[in-house]
Design goal:
With about 250 residues, the chain is of the alpha/beta class. It contains 7 helices and 7 strands, in the order E-H-H-H-E-E-E-E-H-E-E-H-H-H.
Length: about 250
């Protein structure tokens, strides 16, 4: 299936969906959002990353705020950083094409691209920036994999791995894009479109992880009855306060 531009959904929604279907519905269907200390720190971190210009240091070209899309998955978004690593070639072969650079040189054309006004071939790698520590679930890895799948479609290249930079330990975590992660990312993308078509926020299931959600006070999964939205719950609470004041 090929999606129309007007039907593309945000890549960031995959992280919300992988964490909790109800959280995804609150944000992307009901347009509910609460800024917490954690989300504010994350937003500032992303803004700082996107403020910097692209730059070349040695054999790594860093492009920031790269716009992405996949018509196959129906996704669109912005990558914090896409690094292009120049593939080493023997002296005198700077202009060589893949497969002609000599023995022992990895210039697999399926994993490298050419860049405008740049010599040689380059291997792209998406890098996502997150505050805090690595998570136990695949929430962040799914989001990064979706970025890689978009780049693969746009550049006609295969990307084998990416990286997530976590703010608290201040180090990168390598993320291989294996078949299992690719399949899960594709499944979630398809499911996100299904939920969007239905247009109803999924019911909440109270779990331990709920306490770490910035929308916990609006969601209240332990109180809201199935079929009731958080927006409706909030409206009823406000109405009750107005009634008491009268």
């Amino acid at each position: 299936m090929v999606w129309d531009e007007a039907d593309l959904l945000p890549i960031s929604g995959l992280q919300h969906l992988a964490f909790c279907e109800r959280q995804w519905g609150l944000i992307h269907l009901e347009q509910v959002w609460l800024e917490s200390v954690l989300t504010a720190e994350g937003r500032v971190l992303h803004e700082r990353v996107h403020e910097a210009d692209s730059q070349l240091r040695g054999d790594v070209l860093t492009a920031r705020g790269v716009r992405l899309r996949s018509l196959r998955l129906g996704l669109t978004g912005v990558a914090d950083v896409v690094e292009f690593h120049r593939v080493a070639m023997p002296v005198g072969c700077e202009e060589a094409d893949a497969g002609t650079a000599g023995p022992g040189v990895d210039l697999d054309p399926s994993t490298t691209v050419t860049l405008p006004r740049r010599r040689g071939r380059w291997r792209p790698m998406p890098v996502e920036f997150k505050r805090g520590r690595p998570k136990r679930g695949d929430f962040d890895r799914v989001q990064l994999c979706a970025q890689a799948l978009c780049l693969e479609e746009m550049l006609e290249v295969r990307i084998d791995e990416g990286a997530i930079f976590y703010g608290e330990p201040r180090r990168r975590q390598s993320v291989p894009f294996d078949p299992a992660l690719r399949e899960e990312t594709g499944r979630l993308a398809a499911h996100m479109h299904e939920l969007m078509a239905v247009g109803r926020t999924p019911d909440g299931v109270y779990e331990k992880k709920c306490r770490s959600c910035s929308l916990f006070e609006l969601c209240r999964p332990e109180k809201i009855r199935p079929g009731h939205s958080a927006a409706g719950y909030l409206k009823r609470e406000l109405n009750s306060v107005e009634t008491e004041e009268e």
